[in-house]
Design goal:
D-Maltodextrin-Binding Protein, domain 2; three-stranded antiparallel beta sheet; seven-stranded mixed beta sheet; 253 residues; Fructose-1,6-Bisphosphatase, Chain A, domain 1
Length: 253
């Protein structure tokens, strides 16, 4: 895996983001929405981003298998022996895309032995990259690269919350931490707010899929944070489960 560097992922995310923006800024195409079997929305931008990412990863790293939200799903009997693979969400925050609020991302993560060890979260509208690997975490905004690090404060003062998936259970967990304030953003940008020290905690009760969380977790952990299963700081979050459906999780900065 020494031959896998993060810069190519940044370049791929940029190309995927450009494909998304081509749809986003074209009213004839951005309003076309299909629905998958689970009633989640699917846009032309989801599909175009998927094509860009798959083609690039397969060309650069043909030996590394890929799981993408918009790809055909791989049976657990096949993937359970995968030590290393890509986990991709070509357009995270499709609901935010449809709402035209700009809070959607491209997520590309590298999973090794059940852990996300490299990840890029790209916000095409903001043109901001959040990146993490074994060398640490960083952000690229306006062409300027800066280090990311969680607040690492004992007192958890600020929570980041979902725009599209609030829950009563979230209130209970945040009260336990004595949260004084909160911010609300869409998609995996919530992880990025924790990695960037703009929030201290992110709790998600409702279901997500592994591709929703992997790149964000890679960035948070590279920035010094942790992601736990459930609502307590006990068991770390892992990947390539028999079901790719996640339970609740707690992201701590």
């Amino acid at each position: 895996m020494e031959n896998i560097q993060i810069q190519p992922l940044i370049d791929i995310a940029k190309d995927a983001g450009d494909a998304i923006l081509n749809i986003y800024h074209n009213s004839d195409f951005s309003s076309i929405v299909d629905f998958k079997s689970d009633d989640s929305p699917l846009t032309l931008a989801d599909k175009d981003s998927h094509v860009v990412i798959m083609a690039a990863l397969e060309k650069l790293y043909p030996e590394v298998p890929i799981i993408s939200e918009e790809g055909s799903q791989v049976d657990y009997g096949v993937r359970k022996v995968w030590e290393t693979f890509w986990l991709v969400d070509p357009l995270d925050g499709t609901k935010e895309f449809i709402k035209k609020n700009g809070e959607f991302t491209v997520n590309i993560a590298l999973i090794h032995k059940g852990k996300p060890i490299m990840g890029v979260v790209y916000s095409p509208v903001q043109d901001i990259y959040y990146c993490g690997d074994s060398n640490g975490a960083f952000k690229i905004a306006g062409g300027i690269k800066s280090t990311l690090h969680v607040n690492n404060k004992e007192a958890k003062e600020i929570a980041v919350r979902s725009k599209s998936h609030p829950s009563p259970e979230e209130e209970v967990v945040l009260q336990r931490y004595g949260i004084a304030d909160s911010i609300s953003v869409g998609s995996s940008l919530k992880f990025c707010m924790v990695a960037d020290g703009k929030a201290d905690i992110y709790y998600r009760h409702g279901p997500t899929m592994e591709w929703d969380t992997a790149a964000g977790q890679a960035v948070v952990e590279a920035a010094g944070g942790k992601i736990y299963k459930g609502n307590t700081e006990d068991v770390l979050f892992t990947y390539n489960k028999e079901s790719l459906l996640n339970g609740s999780f707690l992201c701590i900065g």
